[in-house]
Amino acid sequence: FSLISYYLIAGNLLAFVLFVSPIPTFRRIVRNRSTERFSGWPYIYSLLNCLICLWYGMPIVTPGIILVCTVNCVGAIFQLIYVTLFIMYAEKGKKVKMLGSLLAVFGIVAVIVVVSMRLFDPSMRQIFVGYLSCVSLISMFASPLFIINLVIHTKSVEYMPFYLSLSTFLMSVSFFAYGMLKLNSFIYVPNGIGTMLGGVQLALYAYYSRTTREDSREPLIVSCE
Protein backbone atom coordinates (compact mmCIF):
# COMPACT_ATOMS: atom_id res chain seq x y z
CA PHE A 1 0.00 0.00 0.00
CA SER A 2 1.07 3.56 -0.65
CA LEU A 3 0.92 6.30 1.98
CA ILE A 4 -2.18 7.67 0.25
CA SER A 5 -3.92 4.29 0.65
CA TYR A 6 -3.12 4.14 4.37
CA TYR A 7 -4.63 7.57 4.99
CA LEU A 8 -7.73 6.70 2.97
CA ILE A 9 -8.24 3.37 4.76
CA ALA A 10 -7.77 5.07 8.14
CA GLY A 11 -10.31 7.71 7.15
CA ASN A 12 -12.78 5.01 6.11
CA LEU A 13 -12.41 3.13 9.41
CA LEU A 14 -12.85 6.30 11.46
CA ALA A 15 -15.84 7.31 9.33
CA PHE A 16 -17.41 3.95 10.18
CA VAL A 17 -16.97 4.77 13.89
CA LEU A 18 -18.87 8.01 13.24
CA PHE A 19 -21.66 6.15 11.44
CA VAL A 20 -22.26 3.73 14.33
CA SER A 21 -21.90 6.34 17.11
CA PRO A 22 -25.65 7.26 17.17
CA ILE A 23 -26.63 3.64 17.95
CA PRO A 24 -26.94 4.27 21.75
CA THR A 25 -29.31 7.16 21.04
CA PHE A 26 -31.53 5.03 18.80
CA ARG A 27 -31.51 2.13 21.24
CA ARG A 28 -32.95 4.58 23.75
CA ILE A 29 -35.50 5.89 21.22
CA VAL A 30 -36.67 2.38 20.33
CA ARG A 31 -36.74 1.30 23.99
CA ASN A 32 -38.83 4.33 25.03
CA ARG A 33 -40.80 4.38 21.77
CA SER A 34 -40.26 8.14 21.64
CA THR A 35 -37.73 10.56 20.14
CA GLU A 36 -38.04 12.68 23.33
CA ARG A 37 -36.02 15.90 22.89
CA PHE A 38 -33.60 14.46 20.35
CA SER A 39 -33.30 16.12 16.96
CA GLY A 40 -33.48 14.28 13.65
CA TRP A 41 -31.92 17.10 11.61
CA PRO A 42 -28.27 15.98 12.03
CA TYR A 43 -29.16 12.66 10.39
CA ILE A 44 -30.96 14.41 7.52
CA TYR A 45 -27.89 16.62 6.94
CA SER A 46 -25.57 13.63 7.15
CA LEU A 47 -27.70 11.64 4.69
CA LEU A 48 -27.62 14.52 2.18
CA ASN A 49 -23.86 14.88 2.65
CA CYS A 50 -23.21 11.15 2.20
CA LEU A 51 -25.30 10.99 -0.99
CA ILE A 52 -23.58 14.03 -2.54
CA CYS A 53 -20.10 12.73 -1.62
CA LEU A 54 -21.10 9.27 -2.87
CA TRP A 55 -21.92 10.81 -6.26
CA TYR A 56 -18.63 12.76 -6.22
CA GLY A 57 -16.69 9.54 -5.58
CA MET A 58 -18.35 7.65 -8.44
CA PRO A 59 -15.90 6.81 -11.27
CA ILE A 60 -18.17 8.57 -13.77
CA VAL A 61 -17.57 11.81 -11.83
CA THR A 62 -14.13 11.45 -10.20
CA PRO A 63 -12.04 8.44 -11.27
CA GLY A 64 -9.54 6.92 -8.83
CA ILE A 65 -11.23 7.57 -5.47
CA ILE A 66 -13.55 4.57 -5.26
CA LEU A 67 -13.10 4.25 -1.47
CA VAL A 68 -14.62 7.71 -1.08
CA CYS A 69 -17.62 6.30 -2.94
CA THR A 70 -17.88 3.13 -0.84
CA VAL A 71 -17.53 4.80 2.57
CA ASN A 72 -20.27 7.28 1.72
CA CYS A 73 -22.48 4.47 0.44
CA VAL A 74 -22.17 2.77 3.84
CA GLY A 75 -22.77 6.11 5.56
CA ALA A 76 -25.91 6.79 3.52
CA ILE A 77 -27.34 3.39 4.50
CA PHE A 78 -26.74 4.08 8.21
CA GLN A 79 -28.24 7.59 8.02
CA LEU A 80 -31.29 6.31 6.13
CA ILE A 81 -31.87 3.72 8.88
CA TYR A 82 -31.56 6.41 11.56
CA VAL A 83 -33.95 8.76 9.77
CA THR A 84 -36.46 5.94 9.24
CA LEU A 85 -36.38 5.00 12.93
CA PHE A 86 -36.74 8.66 13.91
CA ILE A 87 -39.81 9.02 11.69
CA MET A 88 -41.31 5.83 13.14
CA TYR A 89 -41.09 7.02 16.75
CA ALA A 90 -41.50 10.80 16.38
CA GLU A 91 -44.66 12.64 17.33
CA LYS A 92 -46.96 13.61 14.46
CA GLY A 93 -45.56 17.13 13.89
CA LYS A 94 -41.95 15.96 13.77
CA LYS A 95 -42.91 12.91 11.73
CA VAL A 96 -44.39 15.04 8.93
CA LYS A 97 -41.40 17.44 8.97
CA MET A 98 -38.85 14.64 8.83
CA LEU A 99 -40.68 12.74 6.10
CA GLY A 100 -40.88 15.90 4.01
CA SER A 101 -37.18 16.57 4.59
CA LEU A 102 -36.30 13.01 3.58
CA LEU A 103 -38.20 13.37 0.32
CA ALA A 104 -36.51 16.74 -0.25
CA VAL A 105 -33.08 15.11 0.19
CA PHE A 106 -33.84 12.52 -2.47
CA GLY A 107 -35.20 15.25 -4.75
CA ILE A 108 -32.09 17.44 -4.33
CA VAL A 109 -29.74 14.54 -5.03
CA ALA A 110 -31.78 13.50 -8.09
CA VAL A 111 -31.56 17.05 -9.47
CA ILE A 112 -27.78 17.13 -8.85
CA VAL A 113 -27.30 13.82 -10.68
CA VAL A 114 -29.46 14.83 -13.66
CA VAL A 115 -27.94 18.33 -13.97
CA SER A 116 -24.35 17.09 -13.66
CA MET A 117 -24.90 14.37 -16.29
CA ARG A 118 -26.92 16.42 -18.77
CA LEU A 119 -25.26 19.85 -18.60
CA PHE A 120 -21.57 19.19 -17.93
CA ASP A 121 -18.76 17.36 -19.68
CA PRO A 122 -16.60 15.02 -17.52
CA SER A 123 -14.08 17.66 -16.37
CA MET A 124 -16.71 20.30 -15.52
CA ARG A 125 -18.90 17.61 -13.92
CA GLN A 126 -16.12 16.83 -11.45
CA ILE A 127 -15.73 20.51 -10.57
CA PHE A 128 -19.49 21.09 -10.24
CA VAL A 129 -20.08 18.08 -7.97
CA GLY A 130 -16.81 18.76 -6.16
CA TYR A 131 -17.94 22.23 -5.10
CA LEU A 132 -21.28 20.83 -3.93
CA SER A 133 -19.59 18.09 -1.90
CA CYS A 134 -17.20 20.64 -0.41
CA VAL A 135 -20.07 22.89 0.72
CA SER A 136 -21.96 19.85 2.03
CA LEU A 137 -18.98 18.62 4.06
CA ILE A 138 -18.32 22.05 5.57
CA SER A 139 -22.00 22.30 6.55
CA MET A 140 -21.85 18.88 8.19
CA PHE A 141 -18.68 19.72 10.13
CA ALA A 142 -20.21 23.04 11.20
CA SER A 143 -23.41 21.42 12.47
CA PRO A 144 -21.96 20.69 15.97
CA LEU A 145 -21.38 24.44 16.52
CA PHE A 146 -24.63 24.71 18.46
CA ILE A 147 -23.29 21.99 20.78
CA ILE A 148 -20.07 23.97 21.26
CA ASN A 149 -22.20 27.00 22.20
CA LEU A 150 -24.21 24.83 24.60
CA VAL A 151 -21.02 23.51 26.24
CA ILE A 152 -19.70 27.04 26.79
CA HIS A 153 -23.08 28.26 28.06
CA THR A 154 -23.65 25.37 30.50
CA LYS A 155 -19.97 24.74 31.27
CA SER A 156 -20.78 21.05 30.82
CA VAL A 157 -19.88 18.40 28.21
CA GLU A 158 -23.08 16.46 28.89
CA TYR A 159 -24.26 16.70 25.28
CA MET A 160 -20.87 16.39 23.56
CA PRO A 161 -19.68 12.74 23.64
CA PHE A 162 -15.90 12.37 23.75
CA TYR A 163 -15.58 9.46 21.32
CA LEU A 164 -17.79 11.14 18.73
CA SER A 165 -15.63 14.28 18.88
CA LEU A 166 -12.41 12.25 18.80
CA SER A 167 -13.44 10.12 15.81
CA THR A 168 -14.61 13.24 13.93
CA PHE A 169 -11.23 14.87 14.55
CA LEU A 170 -9.18 11.81 13.54
CA MET A 171 -11.30 11.12 10.45
CA SER A 172 -10.91 14.73 9.34
CA VAL A 173 -7.14 14.55 9.83
CA SER A 174 -6.95 11.35 7.75
CA PHE A 175 -9.00 12.71 4.86
CA PHE A 176 -7.19 16.05 5.04
CA ALA A 177 -3.85 14.24 4.62
CA TYR A 178 -5.32 12.10 1.83
CA GLY A 179 -6.62 15.19 0.02
CA MET A 180 -3.25 16.93 0.34
CA LEU A 181 -1.41 13.92 -1.08
CA LYS A 182 -3.91 13.66 -3.94
CA LEU A 183 -3.80 17.47 -4.44
CA ASN A 184 -7.60 17.45 -4.30
CA SER A 185 -8.84 20.70 -2.75
CA PHE A 186 -12.42 19.40 -2.69
CA ILE A 187 -11.24 16.87 -0.09
CA TYR A 188 -8.55 18.68 1.90
CA VAL A 189 -10.30 22.06 2.31
CA PRO A 190 -13.49 20.82 4.06
CA ASN A 191 -11.58 18.23 6.07
CA GLY A 192 -9.06 20.87 7.11
CA ILE A 193 -11.97 22.88 8.48
CA GLY A 194 -13.32 19.71 10.11
CA THR A 195 -9.92 19.13 11.74
CA MET A 196 -9.96 22.61 13.28
CA LEU A 197 -13.55 22.29 14.52
CA GLY A 198 -12.82 18.82 15.90
CA GLY A 199 -9.79 20.20 17.70
CA VAL A 200 -11.94 22.93 19.26
CA GLN A 201 -14.42 20.31 20.50
CA LEU A 202 -11.65 18.22 22.07
CA ALA A 203 -10.13 21.29 23.73
CA LEU A 204 -13.51 22.25 25.17
CA TYR A 205 -14.06 18.70 26.35
CA ALA A 206 -10.70 18.68 28.13
CA TYR A 207 -11.47 22.04 29.78
CA TYR A 208 -15.07 21.47 30.85
CA SER A 209 -15.07 17.71 31.55
CA ARG A 210 -13.66 18.42 35.01
CA THR A 211 -16.86 20.24 35.94
CA THR A 212 -19.31 17.78 34.37
CA ARG A 213 -20.92 15.23 36.67
CA GLU A 214 -20.54 11.75 35.20
CA ASP A 215 -23.94 10.62 36.49
CA SER A 216 -25.77 13.42 34.64
CA ARG A 217 -24.44 12.68 31.19
CA GLU A 218 -26.96 11.96 28.42
CA PRO A 219 -26.10 10.45 25.02
CA LEU A 220 -25.56 12.47 21.90
CA ILE A 221 -27.60 15.33 20.48
CA VAL A 222 -30.71 17.02 21.87
CA SER A 223 -33.09 19.07 19.81
CA CYS A 224 -32.16 22.65 19.07
CA GLU A 225 -35.71 23.47 17.95
UniProtKB/TrEMBL annotation:
InterPro entries per the UniProt record, alphabetical: SWEET, SWEET_rpt
Protein's UniProt name: Bidirectional sugar transporter SWEET
Family note: Belongs to the SWEET sugar transporter family.
Transmembrane segments: 6-26, 38-58, 64-87, 99-120, 126-150, 162-181, 187-208
Gene3D superfamilies: 1.20.1280.290
Compartments where found: Endomembrane system
One GO molecular-function entry: sugar transmembrane transporter activity
Any one annotated GO CC term: membrane
Keywords per UniProt: Membrane, Repeat, Sugar transport, Transmembrane, Transmembrane helix, Transport
Pfam families with a match to the protein in the record: MtN3_slv
Membrane topology: Multi-pass membrane protein
